Structure formats: structure tokens, C-alpha cells
């Protein structure tokens, strides 16, 4: 189904247009299983993901503005075509532009929407390439999955870096991320322009103060304990890297209430004309007992089968 503008009615079950903050158009997805997600067309930004118990697992900063003068600070903003710092604005322009809805579907009670962003005068003024970005967001009862497809529609090659800069609601003091042990790190604290190389030695990475660290070649599944009673699995295909960020006292009003765990592609991805790159991520709320079983199996699998 092709959808032209924000005013078009969507006939797909579980997918509707609504007025968001400051009357910005947003899409509301509602699954048959009782979960809900909000996606603003401005920035193609998912701002809310409520699981069936009603808890919103994402966080929007209290200083977020919805007037298109700044990107929406919170939820799942895009960083494209640059993660940064770099030649163009920090985190690129995709979070500052209106995306359009081009498709929607509902498969067995699970709604999905596909947004599109293409180059225009504004984007070409800082990054002179023609591209198409397709972003499919699918909501299931306990998970939210995204698929980002970048296509080079130009006649010359280009390269980009990218991230999903996900803000999770958390008690930063009690939060931890598992799965990063052994990864090579680029610590942007104290100097983001000259990150310090290192290796992660911890089983669970915590947020005791300012954190701004890139993890290279991260595994395809991480577990975030948000310190509020939720365990969130963050799975990916092709998002090779991860970034952890908490601004600590530089954002005194809210640093205690969130942590960013970002799927990222830090090294430049080179795309030839006509070629596409695909990045897939699934956030899933999982029960603590399941984590215990997974960990038990990981620790004991060799002894069970030997
Ligand atoms: O643009 P935002 O949402 O304020 O986020 C900024 C932060 O984003 C993080 O991804 C970077 O690693 C930090 O260096 C940066 O300060």
C-alpha cells in the first residue's frame, strides 16, 4: 500500500496517524498482544515502546523539543549518514528531516510501517549524494524490530556511518549491559576526538558516572538490565558495533533516568551505485528467568554435551 502524506488515512489494522507533541504527526502502532509504539515522521524517530504491562521501555529527555528546530532528544533517533564527530553535523541529518510513510501491514496482529527518506537540497548541501533510506518498524507483543535499508541511488559510490541512538528508560545507577566482555573499546571520555583504545574486561558494564564508549565488533545480542525490573535483549544483524552513553552531570536533570545503548556501524560502509546495505535490530523484553536459563546453558553447554 502506497501512502502519500501524513493526512492520508491508514486502513491497516493497528496502524494509525495521530497528532503528537506540538501537533507533529506521528504513527501509533498497536499490536493484538497489547503493546504500543509511537513513531514521529520528523526524524523517523520511535519515541515510545510500551510492552503489554504498560511500561514504556524508551525514554524521551525532558529537554526534548518537538518544533523541528532540533532533533527529538530521546527514543530511537537515527544517526545517518555520519555517526560523528566528523565532517558534517554531529549524528548527521536523518534525525532532522521528515520521513514519509510508504507502506504498512499487519501480519497476524503485529503491525508494521515502512518510512522513507531520500536526499534533497538540504541533505545534498552537506553530503552531495543521492540515496534512499527505508526504515521498517514492526511491533510484536514483546518486541520491536527495525530494518534499515540504505540504497545508493547516485551514479558515484558513497560511504556512511550510522547508529540507532536508543535511549532506554533506566535507573542509571542500577543499569548494566551484558555481552560486551572482550570487545575492543574506543573510549570517548575525556576527548571524543581522540578516543582511547582499550578492551572491555567486565561481564556487566555499569554506568557509575559519565560514560561515552564505542564497542567494536560487538556480539549480535546484548542484554540490558534497566535497573527498573526489565531485561531487554538487543539483537542485531549487521550492526557490527555498539555505543554506551550516559551524560552524567552534564545533564543533571535526567541522567539518572536513562542509558543509551546504541546499535552502531562506526567504520565507514562503502556503497557502490545501485547497491544497498541492510541493518536489522530487534529489541525484546524478556523474562529474567529466561536470561538465567540462557546463561546457564552458555556456561554449561560443553559439560552437558561432553
Ligand atoms: O545528540 P544527543 O542525543 O544529545 O547525543 C549526544 C551523544 O551521543 C552519543 O552517541 C555519543 O557517543 C556522544 O559523544 C554524544 O555526546
TrEMBL record:
* Gene3D superfamilies associated with the record: 2.70.98.10
The organism's superkingdom is given as Eukaryota
Provide GO CC annotations from the record: cytoplasm
Q: Tell me, what is one Gene Ontology molecular-function annotation carried by this entry? A: carbohydrate binding
**Which Pfam families does the record associate with it?**
Aldose_epim
Write out the catalysed reaction. Answer: alpha-D-glucose 6-phosphate = beta-D-glucose 6-phosphate
What EC number(s) does this enzyme carry? Answer: 5.1.3.15
The protein's matches in CDD domains, at most eight in alphabetical order, are given as: D-hex-6-P-epi_like (cd09020)
Recite the UniProt keywords alphabetically: Isomerase
Q: Enumerate the Gene Ontology biological process terms.
A: carbohydrate metabolic process
Q: Does the keyword Isomerase apply?
A: yes
- InterPro entries with a match to the protein in the record: Aldose_1/G6P_1-epimerase, G6P_1-epimerase, Gal_mutarotase_sf_dom, GH-type_carb-bd
| Family per record | Belongs to the glucose-6-phosphate 1-epimerase family.
* Protein name, as recorded: glucose-6-phosphate 1-epimerase
Amino acid at each position: 500500500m502506497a501512502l502519500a502524506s501524513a493526512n492520508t488515512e491508514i486502513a491497516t489494522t493497528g496502524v494509525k496517524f495521530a497528532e503528537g507533541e506540538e501537533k507533529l504527526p506521528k504513527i501509533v502502532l498497536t499490536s493484538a498482544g497489547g503493546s504500543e509504539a509511537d513513531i514521529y515522521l520528523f526524524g523517523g524517530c520511535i519515541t515510545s515502546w510500551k510492552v503489554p504491562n504498560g511500561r514504556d521501555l524508551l525514554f524521551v529527555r525532558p529537554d526534548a523539543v518537538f518544533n523541528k528546530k532540533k532533533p527529538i532528544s530521546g527514543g530511537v533517533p537515527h544517526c545517518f549518514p555520519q555517526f560523528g564527530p566528523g565532517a558534517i553535523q554531529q549524528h548527521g541529518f536523518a534525525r532532522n528531516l521528515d520521513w514519509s510513510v510508504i507502506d504498512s501491514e499487519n501480519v497476524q496482529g503485529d503491525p508494521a510501517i515502512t518510512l522513507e527518506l531520500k536526499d534533497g537540497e538540504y541533505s545534498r548541501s552537506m553530503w552531495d549524494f543521492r540515496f534512499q533510506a527505508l526504515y521498517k518498524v514492526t511491533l510484536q507483543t514483546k518486541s520491536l524490530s527495525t530494518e534499515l535499508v540504505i540504497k545508493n541511488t547516485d551514479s558515484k559510490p558513497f560511504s556512511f556511518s550510522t547508529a540507532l541512538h536508543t535511549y532506554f528508560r533506566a535507573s542509571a545507577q542500577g543499569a548494566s549491559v551484558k555481552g560486551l566482555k572482550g570487545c575492543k573499546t574506543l573510549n570517548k571520555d575525556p576527548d571524543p576526538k581522540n578516543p582511547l583504545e582499550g578492551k572491555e574486561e567486565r561481564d556487566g558494564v555499569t554506568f557509575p558516572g559519565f560514560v561515552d564508549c564505542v564497542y567494536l565488533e560487538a556480539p549480535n545480542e546484548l542484554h540490558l538490565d534497566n535497573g527498573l525490573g526489565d531485561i531487554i535483549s538487543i539483537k542485531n544483524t549487521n550492526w557490527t558495533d555498539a555505543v554506551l552513553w550516559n551524560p552524567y552531570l552534564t545533564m543533571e536533570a535526567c541522567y539518572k533516568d536513562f542509558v543509551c545503548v546504541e546499535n552502531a556501524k562506526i567504520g565507514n560502509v562503502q556503497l557502490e551505485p545501485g547497491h544497498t546495505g541492510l541493518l536489522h535490530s530487534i529489541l525484546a523484553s524478556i523474562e529474567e528467568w529466561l536470561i538465567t536459563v540462557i546463561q546457564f546453558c552458555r556456561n554449561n553447554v560443553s559439560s552437558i554435551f561432553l
